Amino acid sequence: MAKKPLNIGLVGYGFMGRTHSNAFLQAPRFFDLPYQPVLKAVCARNPERARTFAANWGYESIETDWRALIAREDIDLIDIASPNDTHAEIAIAAAKAGKTVMCEKPLGRTAAEGKGMLDAIEAAGVPNMVWYNYRRVPALVLLKQLLDEGRFGRIFHYRSQFLQDWTISSDLPQGGEGLWRLDASVAGSGVTGDLLAHNIDMALWLNGKITEVSAMTETFIKERKHTLTGKVEAVSIDDASSFIGRFENGSTALFEATRYARGHKALFTLEINGETASARWDLHDLHRLEFFDYRDEGRLRGWKSIHITDGDHPYMKNWWVPGLQIGYEHTFVHQVADFLIAVGEGKAAAPTFADGLACDYVTDAVLHSARTRQWTSALGA
Ligand SMILES: NC(=O)c1ccc[n+]([C@@H]2O[C@H](COP(=O)([O-])OP(=O)(O)OC[C@H]3O[C@@H](n4cnc5c(N)ncnc54)[C@H](O)[C@@H]3O)[C@@H](O)[C@H]2O)c1
């Protein structure tokens, strides 16, 4: 039976524009989906570069203003892959126009912005999703299954880090293309919204609500040249952010993100310790889950490294043969597949805008706690 076409309008052709385009192309080839994504239009402000991107990825047309993209009747889904300061305005307008909305993380620059986005989505009743793609790493889906099966018993500890090193040089300017992450007026915050948000979203999914946090942030380089003004300006982002906290299930939290950990490029790690089992995972080895089960026979007890490539591992039967691993880009493919299957069944697929807002509440609490040096509720309004 011919699949129903679903016309995609992508905003932004940077890093995420490429991962999303690849996912829309690959998902229907590897998964049985109720819709056929059609790359209808890409929107970016530079028409020449938008045309080059469109030709490379197979988009049928370009727009240079996202408002024109949303106004088009032949677009069903607006996919927001532009910097954080554009998310709210585009998502709210797209929802009002009745479009399905997929939005990059963080949902809003602040929880207040995220709340406005969730309200608009709910008022319009349109399908929605936030691209917290790491929820679709097969090893982490397996970990979620093991947790839901109760194999860990009572959870005591959850710890997670995201370490990078690309902003150490004081010569690196802030603002503008590629460097908008160093300008809090565009990004909302520094590593808190950019990196720690991934650790937090993952923790909320795996281990439940974070109730309160005590945080510390640091800006190591206080002034940088701004690309857009050409002037040396104060740096407004947090370069490093860490917190301790409590989960609703009684376990304790230990989190850290930084772009000043020399030698680390994208070291996203997490470890969870329960009464009867522990697990740890590392993005640099994303196809492995380290698992320790205290119920194993004493003589044989030890950490196992499970190679997540077999047909009975999450998503893997849709890929190659057992033993052959998949990687980063596949998390986005899985996200498109899960989303379209859910939309076809009239269901929501997490992470929804509500999940995105829950994460925004925690990042807001982290920043508030760091500013005030006080324990802060992370549950939001
Ligand atoms: N899920 C993830 O792991 C992940 C990873 C990286 C980035 N992100 C998120 O994705 C978003 C984009 O990040 P990126 O790394 O792709 O950035 P990028 O700088 O590589 O690309 C941003 C793109 O948006 C375009 N753009 C900017 N303003 C625009 C406007 N008004 N209208 C249309 N296009 C506009 C730029 O021209 C550029 O093509 C951010 O929200 C970021 O936080 C998520």
What does this structure look like?
With 381 residues, the protein is of the alpha/beta class. The protein has 2 domains: 4-132, NAD(P)-binding Rossmann-like Domain (Rossmann fold, 3-Layer(aba) Sandwich); 134-377, 2-Layer Sandwich (Dihydrodipicolinate Reductase, domain 2). The chain contains 10 helices and 17 strands. It has helices at 15-30, 47-57, 66-71, 87-96, 111-124, 138-148, 184-187, 191-207, 328-344, 353-372, and strands at 4-11, 35-43, 61-63, 77-80, 100-103, 128-130, 155-163, 210-218, 223-225, 232-234, 240-247, 252-258, 267-274, 277-282, 288-293, 304-307, 376-377. The strands form 3 sheets. A 9-stranded mixed sheet has the order 16-15-14-13-7-12-11-8-17. It has a 6-stranded parallel sheet with strand order 3-2-1-4-5-6, with helices on both faces. Helix 4 packs parallel to helix 5 and helix 5 (111-124) packs antiparallel against helix 10 (353-372). The protein is globular. The model has no long low-confidence stretch (mean pLDDT 97). Bound molecules: nicotinamide-adenine-dinucleotide. Nicotinamide-adenine-dinucleotide binds next to helix 1.
